[in-house]
Write a structure and sequence with these properties.
By secondary structure, the protein is α+β, with helices and mostly antiparallel strands. Helix content is 29%, strand content 25%. The protein starts with 18 loop residues before the first strand and ends in an 11-residue tail after the last strand. It binds oxa(dethia)-CoA.
Length: 354
């Protein structure tokens, strides 16, 4: 009998265009929370300025026991448990981070901690767009049939790269991790209904965490670059203008391409950078305030972690329910930005109000 998927050569096509399902989520944040008032002991700032300009009230800061690998592993473990997966059944561990514990790749260390021995594990670097880019990247392997189960993690520990004497940047960032369990499913159950991704490296200097320029002598006549990074540098106003211009545009384009009206959205899940940016995007799209997810007050900007951290919080407290439609957008250094239209699959968690 001939194989219906085999071509004339008799070679069987390995992949098929499956859907991808967002099955479960997880998150982890450091224990230590530093309030705006507490931070004002270090730099000349105050709660009123930070809250009114950004919506941030506190940020969590990792201690010696809570490095990036352990936060990311804890978030991924929770997603694994929520999905009810055996770690050995995971095919891919993708870590979005810009503050790795190991520049050669931190994802393999997480894979080892999880016992996901059959998974390939690697890092994706795209700053605050990282989680969304990683989710879209992982979904490509699942769609083609090359893989079945992926853990997508967004984690950052920017507290080690912030200049704590620069009040223009240090008040914004915090540490954290979030994760999603992603599984191939039938096309009818697809949870990634559309996406867009973009970069503009001409504006890379607006927000950077760059290699130091220092060199050292190797032998007479030859110098080598010394490894190490400068603290985060940011042109806040330029990044702000970029975000309020590009994020509504990319979301509008995605909604139009998928034939989705803004009124059909259950939630707007944006990278948590600044409450004023979130409000401006929601307003531009015509999405009411009660559908705009925000946890900036507790965590600040945790870079690649903000989207899965916020997702997990809203799933855990029963706000996001299975089958609901979520428009998400990540944006930041690169400059980079993107959007995804998601349908949350599960698991079912009863709402506290129900
Ligand atoms: O993931 C993407 C990450 N980045 C972002 O999303 C950043 C986007 N940009 C922003 O969120 C805003 O530009 C900031 C919150 C960073 C700054 O807000 P702003 O309204 O653009 O303030 P500004 O930089 O224009 O500064 C206004 C004033 C300045 O004083 P003068 O020159 O007017 O006397 C600053 O020195 O506020 C002063 N200032 C502060 N004062 C108290 C700046 N930072 C602080 C501070 N506390 N932490």
């Amino acid at each position: 009998m001939t194989d219906p998927q085999a071509g004339e050569s008799g070679v069987r096509r390995e992949g098929f265009l499956a859907g991808v399902s967002l099955v479960a989520s997880g998150a982890a944040t450091p224990h230590t929370s530093v309030s705006n008032d507490a931070l004002s002991q270090r730099v000349e700032t105050n709660d009123d300025w930070i809250r009114s300009r950004t919506g941030i009230g506190a940020r969590h800061i990792a201690d010696e026991q809570e490095g990036l690998t352990s936060l990311a592993s804890a978030a991924a473990r929770e997603a694994l448990a929520g999905a009810g997966w055996d770690p050995a059944s995971v095919d891919l561990v993708l870590l979005a981070t810009s503050s790795p514990d190991d520049l050669f790749g931190t994802a393999p260390r997480i894979q080892a901690q999880l016992g996901a021995h059959n998974a390939v594990a690697f890092d994706v670097t795209a700053a605050c767009s990282g989680f969304l880019f990683a989710l879209i990247t992982a979904s490509q392997y699942l769609r083609t049939g090359a893989m079945t189960r992926a853990l997508v993690i967004g984690a950052d520990q920017l507290s080690r790269w912030v200049d704590w004497d620069d009040r223009r940047t240090c008040v914004l960032f915090g540490d954290g991790a979030g994760a999603v369990a992603l599984e191939a499913c039938s096309p009818e159950d697809d949870g990634l209904l559309g996406f867009r991704m973009a970069s503009d490296g001409r504006k890379a200097d607006c927000l950077s965490l760059r290699q130091v320029a220092a060199r050292q002598d190797l032998i007479p006549g030859v110098t080598v670059q010394r490894g190490g990074f400068e603290p985060i540098q940011m042109n806040g106003q330029e990044v702000y203008k970029f975000a309020v211009r590009e994020v509504p545009a990319v979301l509008q384009e995605l909604l139009a391409a998928t034939g989705t009206g803004a009124e059909q959205l259950d939630w707007l899940l944006l990278h948590q950078a600044n409450q004023r940016i979130l409000n401006a995007v929601a307003e531009r799209l015509g999405v009411p305030e009660h559908k705009l997810l925000s946890n900036l007050a507790s965590y600040g900007n945790t870079s690649a972690a903000t989207i899965p951290l916020m997702l997990h919080e809203a799933v855990s407290d029963g706000r996001i329910q299975p089958g609901q439609l979520i428009a998400s957008s990540g944006f930041g250094a690169g400059l980079s930005w993107g959007a995804a239209l998601l349908r949350w699959h599960g698991p079912v968690i009863s709402s506290p109000a129900a």
